[in-house]
Every structure is written in structure tokens, then in C-alpha cells.
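Continuing the series of single-chain predictions for the mutant panel. This is the parent chain; the variants come on the following pages.
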Amino acid sequence: MSPDERKAAGQALNVLKSEIETAITGRLEILKRGARAEKLAVERIDVTLPVDDDEGGHIHPISQTIEELVQIFAEMGFTLAEGPEIEGDFNNFTALNMPPDHPARQMHDTFYLSPAADGSARVLRTHTSPVQVRTMLSTKPPIRIIAPGRTYRSDYDMTHTPMFHQVEGLVIDEATHMGHLRGCLTEFCRAFFQVDDLPLRFRPSFFPFTEPSAEVDIGCSRKGGELKLGNYGDWLEILGCGMVHPKVLEMCGIDSTKYQGFAFGMGIERIAMLKYGIPDLRTFFESDLRWLRHYGFSFLDQPSLGLGLTR
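Parent structure:
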């Protein structure tokens, strides 16, 4: 080709090259989008399904323990009751026979909120007992409920946190007595801790909302610095209980000359620590995935009365 012909041909080839590059780039983008759409379709995740245990999804020990509690008490005829975490002074203190100068009302124990519209005090509930009050105010006896949930107190160390979980039980009818309370708690503790001969000891105590009141110890051994539950001659405090005080019944609109009943309460973290060997209460709330993988449960772990977990 002559120099003039080469110049004209080169310009034409450059135009053709640009057109081909543009076509290839456009086609590649279409193929990439198609491949991405195909990959998304193949790898689509149904977020309504449980997480694959191999990928690290675990149920928190608190959630699992609550499920176990509900399962065991449901077998005894208890129903589940819930209530708000922000409570009024009446439900949290007054209806439970706590006088205005009771230490539990002090600011160093209770988280007080801004007053309600009518000027009455509001608090973050310090126990789940207000659920019992609400139930007695709205339901006629017979009553048989358990009330698990979050509670709040101003404290923080190895055995206390500002937010923790409690479960409380309440039975109100015309014939319930202290023997029924003892039998109920004995069956629960033996089923929950999976120790058939676990002994319980009831020690006289004082709570303003029950009379008589008792603290309950379970049998254990501390030999060699290791805590082991069972009939070994030593004791460990686990919960408080008693017969519902007549004043509490009357303040909730129940005739104390006709009805009586019992109540009990325990810390959910505490019994979970005892059952699963968790040494520090604070670790329940630190969101450490390594801790959860170690102490957590598979979604296939199901609570079963008297048998702990079925895997």
C-alpha cells in the first residue's frame, strides 16, 4: 500500500478496533450481570429458616433455660404470664406490701424514671412480681402462672448485673398450702438439674409479700473446689418462696379469708450458671461469639421434662 493508502486504512482499522472493544466491553458487562443473578438465585438464603449450626448460629443459654422452665412448669399446669418492664410504684412496691421506707425503694437499688402523667412514680421493674399483681387484679382465682422476664437493679459484679432475668411463680386457690409449695419446687429442681434424689432444705426467712417465707437450698458438694449438685451433705441457696401475704391478696382485690396460695422466685442466670457450669454472670451479656459458641445450644436442642435436653 502506498503511504496515503496506509494512512487511510490505519484510520479505518482504528475506528473498527474501537467499535469491537466497545461491543466486547458491553457484552462482558451483560455476562457478568447474568452470572451474578444466577449466583444470587442459587445461593439465595431463606432468612425465616434456622441458621445452620455449622455456620455458628447458637441459642443463648438464657433463652434455652427459659424454654426449659416453661416446659417443666407447663407439665405442672402453670400458664405463662408477661408484663411491661416499666412499672408503676403500686405494682412494683405498694401492692407487694412494701412500705414507703422499705430499702428496696431507695435510689441505689432502683432505676427511677420520669413520673407518669398523673405524677405517680415509674420504675424499671426490680422483679417480675408486678406480673403477679397484674394477674391477680385482672383474673379471678384459681390462678397458676409463671412469669419469666427481664428485671433491673443498680448493681454490677461477678454475681450481679444491672439487667438480669427472673422467673416467678404464683398459685392462688382455696386449698393450696405450704406442702404443695414444697412438692412443686422439689419436682422442679430435680427435673431441671436432672438429679433424681436432689435434696431441698427450706429455711425460715422474711419477704414482705409472703408469710411464712422461706429460702430454699439444694444439696451439693464443694470438695476439691468443684461444685457438684446432689445428696452430698452440703447446701447451696437457690431461691426464695412463701405463702402469699394476706395483705397482698387484699390489695389485689382477692378475699384473703377464702383464698390463699404460694409464690416463688429465682434468678434465671443463677440456675443456668449452676446447671451449665458458667462461672461469671457478666459473660451472659458481653456478646462474645466465642463464649456463645461454647455455651450456646443448637436450634435442634429441645427441652424435655426430667431429661434435660434431647439432641
